[in-house]
Fold this protein.
Amino acid sequence: MAAKISALRSQVEQALAGRVSAPFTYRDRNVFPTVATGIPEIDALTGGLPRGALTEIFGPACSGGTSFLFSALGARTGHDEACALIDGSDTFDPCSAAAAGVDLKKLLWVRCHSIEQTLRATDLLLQSGGFGFIAVDVSDISPKLVRHVPLDSWFRFRRAVEDTPTILLLLSRESNAKTCASLVLQLQGHAVHWRKPGRAADSSSGANTRANSYVGDERHSPAWLLEGLEARAEVLRSRMQPPAVESLAHHKVLPLKVSRNAGREAGAIFKTKTNWDSLGIASAENKSK
Amino acid sequence: MAFASIYVPQFMVQAVLRTEPQLRAGALALVDGTPPLVRVIDANDSAWRAGIQMGMAKSQVAQFLGVEIRNRSQSKEAAAHAALLDLGWSVSPRMENTAADTIVLDLAGLNSLFGSDEEIAGDLSRRALSLGLATNVAAAANIEVAIHAARGFTGVTVIPDGEESRRIGVLPVHVLFPSEESLATLDRWGIKTCGDLAALPLLELSERLGQEGVRLHELARGASVRSLVLAEPSLSFREELELDTAEEELEPVSFLLGRLLDQLCARLQARAQAATAIHLRFDLGDLFEKDAEIIKRNSPPDDNQKIYRKGLTLPVAMRDSKMLLKLLRLQLQSDPPPGSIVKIILVAEPSRRRAAQSGLFVPSSPDPEKLELTVARLAKLVGSANVGSPELVDTHRPGEFRMSRFRPPANEEPPRRKSKNGTELAIAKPAANEPPSRRSSVGFRMFRPRLPATIELHDGVPSRVFFRGVYGSVIAASGPWRTSGDWWREDFWLQDEWDIEVWVNSPSARIIHTRNSFSALDSNPQQQTAAPSGTYCIYFDVTAQSWFVRGMYD
């Protein structure tokens, strides 16, 4: 019996020779090396971004997705990794990205104008290889169009990055990659922070969480500055085993709950800050005065 | 001291065969002259065997089945000669450019590098084949003996010192290049070989043939002594191909480009060089009707209309002909030539090939050659202006940037410094070890093109806003922040900018904003009050007297 099994094994191995290197060797696809996102709260929540896997971040407009993207790009370019951004609707702002710490020289920006271009560009970059981080931003493409992307496209992308050190990040308004994503994170806008000029940050700031023009106990004034946004992140799906984080020596890492129901409970709130001194979108000197 | 002579037999035919290697198997006759007096000037062995004769008219040659006819091409001969020179310089810096089909190399000091003279001669023959040339190679201690042996013996010949007279004695007299008159005289005397000529008494020979007789006698004995006339090394890589019939389709032209690139890369390899740029030029025949009209309208008539140029600038020096062909094809497909092609010229800018030592512990980086191809494909997909690295420009104009070429981070070990005890230490980059900041910067999404907006003002402050399906009340506004600049230019700007937080009212927008948390809204009143709002940057363009949305804080 054992001899028959052995013969059968060798027969299968010979048939798959050249295509599959070791068909009977178990490969644990849930063990991913992870890297920091640049946002400590998210790193504590998820364990970081998995390499060799597809990560999906989705949420409505103004929910912090772009801030998350800039943080991740800043962290990766800071580590001398080649990064690529496939911008589905040409909305990337280099000025604010540079202000967020993204080294633009290490970023390949592909400005697409349709979902077809976006998917084709993603295919080309994944085939090229060598990139440490590839972000696909389809946030401003109509959700209806993105929803019609066949699931096998996402599956193909996932397979293309498997066993490579590439982090593939999909940024969208809705969850589209479904089970192809190893980590799915939902973002939700939580609050907008305004600050009275001339006072130190956080000392007199207030957050708009209700539909009125009051900030804290004071009526909002046009002279106030936009200080930052606050967003809430929830892990909807994670295939990762408890992470072995590369760069989280400075932060306490929370154990990640893997089950779906438990995953929905896992959430974190992170804050972003407007960097008026270096942001080029407006007269920085005027706003910071 | 030894010299090696490399001779290309039937040089004109080989120059053609080098660009059309598929003709090697068949019979080929080369014709030249002004119509209708076009005559055969050379042919390959198969053609001679088929009955082709020197001076035969082209119309007569056309009667032979299976004999290909080609016009003599001086550009192909020039390229073949350049390849022959590259072959010589690939082995020795001391080289004589004896004739279009002959070069002589000084082999002194090369034995320790390449082996014995026999091995060097064999190596030269193999290298010549890789450049598309079948050659005779002869090595001897005497320059003239090496030249004559290469012209007379097929393949590789090595003549030991002292045997020159005996070895070249069997060669026919014409290898010594006597004048026609002297050759006829020698023929009348029955002198057929160099040995016969060397056996004649010198005094009587000089009385009858003069100084030429003395020279021929010296050459026949292998006793001529002269110095090598050194050629000046040059790094010029140019390949040309004239087409017998104008070609309109890109596909067959790509095939020819591939051949030229193969030859160009073989020559670059022979000189241990690689290309940093490739310049392509097409001489055009008839322009296509539509393009001809456009060109006529847009430019004054001159000869430049019939020249099409393309440049391929490479991020790293490379000599992979297949890769270069793919890049050229992508460029040609995105901007095809406006007419039929009659001549192709390829010029390579040479440079030393890159030598990089990758580090084991540095992040992986895209292969520059592969990346160049990917970027070219992306440029074809989205337009060349839409691929690259963004670069900030020194201006306050909102949203201003330019695209530059993407250069991946060098995959090299970090620079090292010496420690006090002399050991080398890697210099760590500060960014790699710094703890991440506690608060990230707000991301901003720029709407391109800018979105027109309808804004309602209350006491000069935006109170309601409507743009691209977003309709809502402004619950917080910050501004106006006036910016202006470039007043001396036509496209100056003068804007009053506001940052606004909008409570979205429109049902469609609410669905878009809250689709993913819709089910949770009813059960979670806190979320219900917080979810459907957005923070935008709007501005009033004073020059256009209109409101626009610049982008969204996200």
Observations:
- Residues 499 and 537 of chain B are 5 Å apart (CA to CA).
